[in-house]
């Protein structure tokens, strides 16, 4: 199947809600490109680029990287696309990022279609993140430096303060729908797909 029309999906939800997991499958099955700002930044850190060196301590502390760096990064990605068929996972995360994205998408004639908001209880989120760190270590891999209980709680607090206000931003525009993020990954995926526009 070929896909020529624009489509923009934005995953919202706290750290550990399953945004990355679900966005990866949705992208694969719907011919969309996943843009995960966390993955892009971790790649820069791993390669030791100038950007990576700049953001490493910020990510380790569970804080947000400055808006202008993220907005420049997203602008470049979108500019390199033909039809804009994209799933954002981890962006936008602040009001300034959301407003910048609105402008970029307007310029490209690619309005937002759907904003699924994954809802998961706070303690389950922490448990998932700590478990991911534990499993990576058990496999002899390097765990994400922010997958500790302390940093997960910090990330949760940052989400509440800086990202949660975006729920209203997208609610006002009629794009947002809530998804129960607890259950098997297939169950959660089915709920997401059934709400897509
Ligand atoms: P980022 O990588 O975006 O991390 P996050 O939002 O904290 O998200 P996670 O990857 O932990 O969670 P997720 O919701 O994607 O869930 P996942 O599918 O992985 O950001 C990291 C850092 O980068 C930020 O703190 C910041 O410093 C910086 N950054 C990134 N974007 C930025 C931006 N726009 N502006 C500024 N700074 C930015 O699942 C989590 C775990 O749960 C996995 O182990 C998974 O297997 C498991 N799981 C998933 N679904 C289920 C399920 N249904 N049942 C049981 N377990 C499940």
From TrEMBL:
CDD domains: ADK. It catalyses: AMP + ATP = 2 ADP. It is found in: Cytoplasm. The keyword Nucleotide-binding applies. Pathway: Purine metabolism; AMP biosynthesis via salvage pathway; AMP from ADP: step 1/1. AMP binds at residues 37, 42, 63-65, 90-93, 97, 144, 155. Residues 136-155 are annotated as: Disordered. The keyword Lipid biosynthesis does not apply. Gene3D superfamilies: P-loop containing nucleotide triphosphate hydrolases. Keywords: ATP-binding, Cytoplasm, Kinase, Nucleotide biosynthesis, Nucleotide-binding, Transferase. One of its GO terms (molecular function) is AMP kinase activity. Monomer. This is Adenylate kinase. It comes from Deinococcus reticulitermitis. The lineage of its organism: Bacteria, Thermotogati, Deinococcota, Deinococci, Deinococcales. The gene is adk.
């Amino acid at each position: 199947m070929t896909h020529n029309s624009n489509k923009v999906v934005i995953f919202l939800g706290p750290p550990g809600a399953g945004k990355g997991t679900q966005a990866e499958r949705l992208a694969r099955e719907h011919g969309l490109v996943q843009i995960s700002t966390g993955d892009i930044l971790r790649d820069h850190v791993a390669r030791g680029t100038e950007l990576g060196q700049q953001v490493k301590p910020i990510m380790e502390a569970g804080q947000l990287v400055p808006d202008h760096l993220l907005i420049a990064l997203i602008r470049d990605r979108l500019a390199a696309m033909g039809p804009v068929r994209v799933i954002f996972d981890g962006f936008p995360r602040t009001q300034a990022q959301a407003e910048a994205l609105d402008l970029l998408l307007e310029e490209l004639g690619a309005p937002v279609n759907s904003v699924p908001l994954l809802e998961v209880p706070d303690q389950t989120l922490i448990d998932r993140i700590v478990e991911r760190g534990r499993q990576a270590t058990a496999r002899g891999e390097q765990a994400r430096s922010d997958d500790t209980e302390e940093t997960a709680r910090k990330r949760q607090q940052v989400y509440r303060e800086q990202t949660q206000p975006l729920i209203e931003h997208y609610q006002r525009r009629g794009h947002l729908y809530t998804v129960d993020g607890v259950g098997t990954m297939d169950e959660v995926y089915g709920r997401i797909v059934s709400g897509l526009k």
